[in-house]
Design brief:
151 residues; alpha+beta; four-stranded antiparallel beta sheet; binds 2'-deoxyadenosine-5'-diphosphate; binds magnesium ion
Length: 151
């Protein structure tokens, strides 16, 4: 089976609002495999690296402050096409444009408080996983239910 990994994070607003379990649950129920998880309050330097592509945006400074304002639940999820599908589970960047049934479409209103992060491509996922996790923090194991999820 061709599998890939994505970096998913519950942002400080999502942690404070008690949405960690709900967000994990959506990925678990879909059949994806949790490979790594930790609660971390990221430094300014760490976040500037994570969002380096957005450094010239007017909202950059506010984004870094918000993302560093409390614990983030950082995760690696694994499975077939998990990068693209993870983005679908999260919804659109602007929650008001997100479909009901997506995380942002169900739990957020403001783009600057959109509850969760998901890698936008396989390459950026690799970069983000390397930035947020040490190699030994990412687990390799077989899901017991594997044969009931994949043909
Ligand atoms: P996404 O998180 O959907 O990948 P992105 O990478 O374009 O979106 O932007 C990163 C985050 O920056 C996004 O989750 C919320 C914030 N952001 C994006 N556009 C914004 C805007 N116009 N105003 C305020 N914050 C914004
Ligand atoms: Mg992005």
């Amino acid at each position: 089976m061709t599998s890939e990994q994505t970096f998913i994070a519950v942002k400080p607003d999502g942690v404070q609002r008690g949405l960690v379990g709900e967000i994990i649950s959506r990925f678990e129920k879909r059949g994806f495999k949790l490979a790594a998880i930790k609660l971390i309050t990221p430094s300014k330097e760490h976040l500037e690296k994570h969002y380096e592509d957005l450094s010239d945006k007017p909202f950059f400074k506010g984004l870094i402050t918000y993302m560093g304002s409390g614990p983030v639940c950082a995760m690696v999820w694994e499975g077939r096409e998990v990068v693209k599908t993870g983005r679908m589970i999260l919804g659109a960047t602007n929650p008001l444009a997100s479909q009901p049934g997506t995380i942002r479409g169900d739990y957020a209103i403001d783009v600057g408080r959109n509850v969760c992060h998901g890698s936008d491509a396989v390459e950026s996922a690799k970069k983000e996983i390397d930035l947020w996790f040490k190699k030994e923090e990412v687990q390799s194991y077989t899901q017991a239910q594997h044969g009931w999820i994949y043909e």
